[in-house]
Structures are given as structure tokens and as C-alpha cells.
Amino acid sequence: MTPDTPKTESAGGSVPPLEVHDLTVAYHTQPVLWDVDLTLPEGRLIAIVGPNGAGKSTLLKAVLGLVTPITGWVKIYGAAYSQRRSWVGYVPQRESVDWDFPTSALDVVTMGTYGRVGWLRRPSRRHRELALSCLEKVGISELARRQISQLSGGQQQRVFLARALAQEAKLYLMDEPFAGVDATTEQAVLTLLKELRHEGKTVVAVHHDLQTVGQYFDYVVLLNMRLVAAGPVATTFTHENLQLTYGGRLTVLSEAAEAFLAQRSAGKED
Amino acid sequence: MVEFSYTLRNVMLGASLLGVMGGVVGSFALLRRQSLLGDALAHAALPGVCLAFLLTGQKSPPSLLLGATLAGVAGALFILVVVRWSRIKEDAAIGIVLSVFFAVGMVLLTRIQKLETGNQSGLDKYLFGQAATLVDDDLKWMSIVGAVVLLTVGLFFKEFKLLAFDNAFGASLGFPMRGIEVILTCLLVVVVVVGLQTVGVVLMVAALITPAAAARQWTDRLGIMVFLAAAIGGLSGAAGAVISASVERLPPGPTIVLVSSCALAVSLLFAPRRGLLWAYLRKRSVMARIRRENLLKDLYLMGERERGWSNFVSLSALMGLRGQGAREIERNAQPLLQQQLLEASRDDLRLTQAGFAEAQQVVRKHRLWELYLTRRLELPSDHVHRDAEAMEHALSEGAVAALEARLGFPKEDPHGRPIPPRRSR
To answer: Does B411 reside within a domain?
Structure first.
């Protein structure tokens, strides 16, 4: 890994990694996202938080052009996604693929390089070596040859993360990277995210566990079909905003906010 | 021995070519869980054959197969459109296309049979296939199509893999996944049409699924799977042709399907790791290990009660514990005696030093797990024994060490019995 110059606080006026304007998405006639406006800062770990069916995954998919919005546009570093593909890495939900597929961990990670390999060409030795180094970064290079169904859930999640790393992107979109993983993987993922931030990259992750939002992320987007609030965790991840996001059913959530506040007053940073 | 006639040669070649193509393209259909798409496309081709005949009034294969191709593509498009624009799901759409197109085909076929020019013997071979009617021209034509199919798969291998494994990710990389899907579906149509003359509409799907499903059993690499599927398909085709030629009144199409089905059955049973026999043997060896571990544990517990492990324990005392017969215990003891974990004095048994250490580990897992359940899940101590009986055979030493650390290196289980120490090295 190249020792990167420490990230300078993104200079005011620089192009935001992700800008969403007036985005509305519907499946059939069911609206999923309404008039979302969002501008995200560079070099942060950003959590997208909201109840089930709030459109969190859909927001990521709309950014990636996987679903077509009814209105609105998305810009990545100031240009359309089609012009910025190589700057974006994507980690889909782990359940979105069939893990019994006949392929190895290394092979899946190599898929991250396909965008650069291009049409009809085979990935070269160089691409495979890059893929292997990405597996190393997530700590499972010794499992490179293993068939993917022989991996634990946490290891599968790491394979997906390594595949995104192999995309060598500047902006990473991750759909629940912490979902259903063991404690070791959770730590490995967290370390990786912090490393990415240190390299000045931006990570946008759908996150479910409200208890850990304050610990893991420094910026939060609260979503419930419409944008409720977006901003630094310290000022935005508040009881009121959570109440607005989750409506009435909030007993668990208020506990989460309290836990976070208590933790902050006890002194942060691990 | 079968005479190697012109017909047999043609049937063999045709069936092998079809088998290879079906295996290669079918592998991707299988992995995309679209096996039935091939079935629908085959059925959808029938009205195309009939219409081509009605329009041209000829039975020449090129025009008939062109009709079949067009109808197959129409069927595929129809499925795409239905899924895209209505709320009908893909499996239902496939069923609809299959039955509607086939019904139209059967209506037309019946009408054609009543026509004077109809002389239907030419057309109904597309229903069940009539490999014996393959002539040199057909084969030449099949070889060209086969070469094109294999070349296309070779070129698009990476793209097809992406399509089958993670379509959305491929799209996010900027690959035109819908276009790639169209190419793969076209290959499927082409293979189906090639197969019409050999195995027919009804059995075509077997040529796609069976070799691929058999190949999947033997490997975890996509490239090898595609290659194996081609080999299984090709060999089944050739073997089926020879068998049907050597036995009277055995039609080649169904025979080929039966041969590849046998290959599938063998694969399902005997393939390493994925095969049923493998699973059975693995289960048996685990059960045997559990029984051995239980025997060691029983001896340990008896010694614990008597405050010493130096006494030999009689078979009858052991039989009382689990209601096992003497022979069963002897069978469990046999390998332990060989490993010198047990020693025997006539029929009586006792733990050796090594056996004692081994038994300690089993008991250690059991008691730590019991403690974990009572502490973490707050289960009452009389609810945890049965669960621990299973876990003592499943926990790895690493997991147990982690468990022990989490519990704060306890000395006693919930019933106040000592927890043996970790294995000394």
C-alpha cells in the first residue's frame, strides 16, 4: 500500500463526490423515494439510516443507474455516472447472489477489475495479482482458491468488499456491509473503512445498527422515503431526527440515541 | 456388434454436436436458474416450423429451421415483455409461452396433416426428433452453428459469468447486461433449434439441463464445469446413438436423454463432496467419532465419581449407561484400543494417559458450554445438558478457548463439577 498523504479537509468549493438532486423513484406505481436532495462531503464515512422500506438500497441503486428514476439526477464528482463509473465501487447486499455459484473467492474479487479489463478480454495476471492483494487487505488471502460457498458469512462479506477494492474507486457505495457478520469481520470491515477514509476516499454505507452509527461513521443520512436529515453524526444523529425518521415506534431507537450520547460524553475515539 | 452404417455415423455425429452445444449453453441457463426457458423456447419453435411449411409448401430443413428460430426468438421476447410490463413473474410467463405456442403449433400440425400436400411424416419428427433422418448437409450445417456457438461462448465467457453470478454488479461496471442476456438467449434458441431434428421439442430441455447439472457435481470452477458439461453431453449423445442402433426399436432421441440422465444419476450419487454417497459417508464417520468420544467421556465420568481412573471398568457397567449392547461398545472401543487411548484387561476397559487427556477435552467442552448457556442465555442449569451433549462434539478447540476466555476462565460448571484444563502441549 502506498503511504498516502494525510487527507486534507476537503477544501471548500471542491466538487462533491456525490450529488443527488430532486430524485424520485418508484417501482411500478409504488413510490420509494420522493424528491431527495443530497450533497455528500468527500473523505467521510457516511451512513444511510432508515427503517425497512425507506428506500436506502434504492438510493444506492439509483446512483448506480440500476434503477431509473422518474425525475431528478445524480452527479458523481460533478459528472453523470456513466462518465464516472471507474471512480465508483459497489458492494451489493450479500444475499443478492447465489453463493453456490461455481467460482473461487479470487475469481469473484477479480470481477472488480472487469470494468478496466474491458469487453471480451480476459483478466491478465496483473489483474489477478491486484485481486489477491485486495483479498489480503481484507485479511483472507489464504482463502483465495476456496469455492465461495465454503466461506462463512463474514468471509463472503469480505470477498465482496475486496471486489469493491479491486475497482480502485474514489467513492464506495456499500449495501449493509455489516449485516450478519461475526465480530472479527465487523472489526476487519471497520478497519478497512477507516483506512479508506485515511486515503481520502468516501464511503457511503447503508447501515442498520443504530447503536454503532456514532462509533463507526462520522456523517449520517437519515432517510424515510424522503430525506429527513443529513449531516455530521454529532449534530444530525439526534433523538428528534430519529423520531422523525422512524415515526412513532421508537422505544428501541431512543435507547440507541441515548446510548450514543452517553458514549460521546464519556469521551469518544477508540 | 453394431454395423457402423452411414445412418449411425450421422446420428452419432449429430447427437454429439448437439450434446456439446447443449452442455455449454445449458451450463449458463442452469446457473441462471433458467432451465425451463430452454423448454419454453423448444415448444415455442413448433408453430414456427408449421408456419414455415404452410408458407413455403416445402419440407426443406433450412426454411423450417428458420421458421423455428424466428418463433423461438418471438417466444423469448414475449417472455421478456410479459415480465417487464406486467406483474406476472418469470416462471408463470415461461409456462404461458410454452403452452400457448405449443398449442398453436399442435393446431397447425393437425391442420397440415389433413392437407393433401401435408404428408405429415415430415413434420411430426420435430415433436419427438428423428435423428435417423439427419443427412450430410444437416451435419455440415450443425457443425457451423456449433462452431459459432462455442466461439461466442469463448468470447463472452467473462460477460456470461458476470451475468449469471451478479447481474447488478455487472451493470454497475457499465457492461450492457441486457444486451449480454439477449446474446445468451439467442444462443439458447439456436441450440434448441439445432436439437429439434435430433431429440425433438419435447425432450430438448434434457439436452440443456442434464449434462450441466451432472457437470456441476464434479467441480467448483465455472470453466471446468462448462467443459465437463460439453464432454458429458457429447459422450451421452454418441453413446445413446450406438445403443439405440444396437437394440431394435429403440429411438435415438429418448435413448440419448436416458444415457445422459444415467450420467446425472451417477454424478448425484458419487461425485466427491456434493454427492449423496459422500454426504452419507461423512455423516457416518462423524457418528462414529461421536460414539468414540462418548465412550471416552463415560469412562472419565466414572473415574471422576470413584476419584481415580486406575481401575478397569467392566463392560456391563458401561452397558448400563447408554443402553448399548456389549458388541456395540466393543466396536466403539476397537479403534480407541488401536490408538492406545484405551487399554483392555480381558473385557474390561480403562483410559490410558493419552485417552484421559482426550476425554478431558470432551468433558471440558461439555461443561464450558453448559456454563455459557446458563450465564449468557440465563437458562436454568437443568436445561442445558442435552444441548451440551451435542456441542461437546462440534466445538473446535479454538472456539472453546475463546468461550473460556469470555467466561473468565471458570473453574466449575453450573453443577459444581470441575472444568478440565486445556490440552497441555
So the answer is: no
d(CA A50, CA B259): 55
Q: How far is A85 from chain B (nearest CA, A)?
A: 6
The amino acid present at B34, given as its one-letter code, is Q
What is the mean predicted confidence (pLDDT) over A56-63? 94
Of B162, B216, B225, the CB nearest to A111: B162
Mean pLDDT, consecutive 10-residue segments, chain B of 425 residues? 76 94 96 91 93 85 88 92 88 93 93 72 78 86 94 96 96 94 93 89 91 96 97 96 90 92 96 91 93 93 87 86 86 92 89 92 92 86 86 87 88 89 78
Residues of B whose CB is below 8 A from A91: none
CA distance A117 to A139: 25
Radius of gyration of chain B (CA): 32
Residue type at position B38? G
Mean of pLDDT over chain A: 87
d(CA A261, CA A237): 9
Domain extent, residue A86, equals 18-265
Number of domains in chain B: 2
CA–CA separation, B49 vs B70, rounded Å? 9
Q: Is residue B416 part of a domain?
A: no
DSSP string of B35-89, one letter each residue? HHHHHHHHHHHHHHHHHHHHHH----HHHHHHHHHHHHHHHHHHHHHHHHHSS--
| Residue B419 in domain | no
What is residue A252's predicted lDDT score, i.e. its pLDDT? 53
Find chain B residues with C-beta within 8 A of A122's C-beta: 157-158
Count Cα neighbours of A159 within 13 Å in the Cβ-side half-sphere: 28
Q: Please, what's the b/e burial string for A150-180 (b: 16 or more CB within 10 A of its CB; e: otherwise)?
A: ebeebbbbbbbbbbbbbbbbbbbbbbbbbee
pLDDT at B307: 82
Domain that holds residue B325: 278-351
Residue B80 lies in a domain: yes
Final residue in a domain of this structure, among B215, B243, B274: B274
pLDDT of residue B269: 96
Q: Which of A119, A122, A150, A165 to mutate to test the interface with B (most CBs of B within 10 A)?
A: A119
Which CATH number characterizes residue A140's domain? 3.40.50.300
> Nearest Cα to B184, choosing from B34, B10, B68?
B34
Q: Which of residues 203-262 of A touch B (CB under 8 A)?
A: none
**Structure confidence at residue A258 (pLDDT):** 62
Is the complex ipTM higher than 0.90?
no
More confident residue, A183 or A3: A183
Measured CA distances, B103 to A54, A149, B28, B83, B107 (Å)? 45, 42, 28, 21, 6
The C-alpha atoms of residue B177 and residue B292 are separated, in whole angstroms, by: 55
Same domain, B67 and B155: yes
Instruction: Indicate the pTM of the whole model.
Output: 0.85
Nearest residue of chain A to residue B218 (CA atoms): A102
- CA B91, CA B36: separation in Å to the nearest integer? 8
Query: In chain A, how many domains are there?
Result: 1
DSSP state of A94: G
Determine the length of chain B: 425
Side chain identity, residue B351: L
